[in-house]
Design brief:
137 residues; alpha/beta; 4-stranded parallel beta sheet; 6 strands
Length: 137
């Protein structure tokens, strides 16, 4: 069997299944039918860096994400702290180029030299708790 039409009205939308029966026996002649349905998309999430603060240069990408995935039945799990990670969820992550990712520096550290390590340390916390980063780091 397969989906007859795509779900276009969000995660609670309705669709129809098309069934194939042996020798094309009509469904009305079957004594019972059990359908096991599961989504084709994996559990998805979004790492919201700096909660409540959106950078203008990334707003379009972020808004497209939040509009696109629900139309195919995927309700993203939004996290802003590694402790909120749900194991097995694929989390979209990003780093902006407008000083979006600025963690405190220790005495004598240079931003340009420390930044890649800060990024790796921060996002590795999500993976350590069972999250799957997408795109892969």
């Amino acid at each position: 069997s397969h989906w007859r039409e795509p779900i276009t009205d969000g995660p609670h939308g309705k669709s129809k299944l098309r069934f194939s029966t042996p020798k094309n026996v009509p469904l009305s002649k079957l004594g019972g039918l059990i359908a096991i349905v599961f989504p084709m998309a994996p559990p998805m999430g979004w790492i919201e860096f700096l909660p409540g603060q959106r950078k203008k240069h990334q707003e379009i990408f972020r808004e497209l994400y939040f509009r696109t995935f629900p139309t195919i039945g995927v309700e993203p799990h939004v996290v802003y702290d590694p402790e909120q990670t749900q194991q097995g969820t694929h989390y979209m992550w990003r780093i902006g180029g407008n000083h979006e990712f600025e963690l405190p520096l220790k005495e004598g550290e240079l931003y340009e030299r420390r930044l890649p390590y800060q990024i790796a340390e921060y996002f590795s916390q999500f993976e350590a708790r069972g999250g799957i980063l997408f795109p892969p780091a």
